[in-house]
């Protein structure tokens, strides 16, 4: 595979995909976590609570993301004048035909010479950028001021990388405590409806507070 980076306007397709992920998956979990904060004792400023949230729900989120990924990779894309193909077919078959490609642009890649200033517009989907959902996504997720240099020829990591820091819990939960917690919440693990997920959180929080009131 390959990895390129640069200004977000050159990667509108992945921005559109992020909108789909948020709409179909992320928004549901965000609303659920907000309900836990408003009604069920989740304290966003308590790192132990955040650790517990990850422990309880991250496996389910990862499973849903994996299902979304597999579904997307195998869905059929209609191509005018050709047979339909899936993204995974594009990925593997085109590498077999054209070889693995990086960010080096050979002279024959373009019929005409492209000036550096023209590269700033290369690959920009202006119609997609006018879609309200995509514009909102870019505004929320690209808060860092971007420079005007093109991604062409850039190597190494970008200046700014996204990261999510999860501190260990402040309460002294032992390995045995976590094992007991897992056994205690196991009846709620297979159920993914809103009420069962809420009960999973409420019961787990009550259990760990019973082990350590300072959790």
UniProtKB/TrEMBL annotation:
Domain Integrase core: 2-96
Domain of life: Eukaryota
InterPro entries: Integrase_dom_put
UniProt protein name: Integrase core domain-containing protein
Organism for this UniProt entry: Hydnum rufescens UP504
């Amino acid at each position: 595979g390959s990895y390129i980076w640069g200004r977000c306007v050159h990667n509108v397709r992945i921005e559109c995909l992020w909108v789909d992920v948020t709409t179909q998956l992320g928004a549901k979990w965000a609303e659920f976590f907000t309900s836990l904060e408003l009604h069920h004792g989740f304290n966003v400023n308590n790192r132990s609570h955040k650790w517990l949230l990850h422990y309880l729900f991250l496996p389910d989120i990862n499973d849903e993301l994996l299902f979304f990924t597999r579904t997307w990779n195998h869905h059929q894309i209609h191509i005018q004048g050709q047979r339909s193909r899936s993204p995974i077919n594009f990925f593997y078959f085109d590498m077999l035909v054209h070889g693995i490609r990086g960010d080096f642009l050979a002279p024959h890649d373009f019929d005409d010479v492209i000036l550096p200033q023209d590269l700033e517009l290369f690959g920009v989907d202006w119609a997609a950028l006018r879609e309200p959902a995509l514009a909102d996504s870019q505004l929320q997720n690209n808060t860092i001021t971007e420079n005007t240099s093109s991604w062409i020829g850039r190597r190494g990591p970008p200046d700014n990388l996204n990261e999510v820091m999860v501190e260990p819990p402040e309460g002294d939960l032992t390995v045995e405590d976590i094992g007991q917690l897992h056994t205690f919440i196991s009846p709620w693990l297979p159920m993914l409806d809103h009420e069962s997920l809420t009960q999973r959180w409420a019961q787990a929080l009550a259990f760990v507070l019973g082990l350590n009131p300072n959790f």
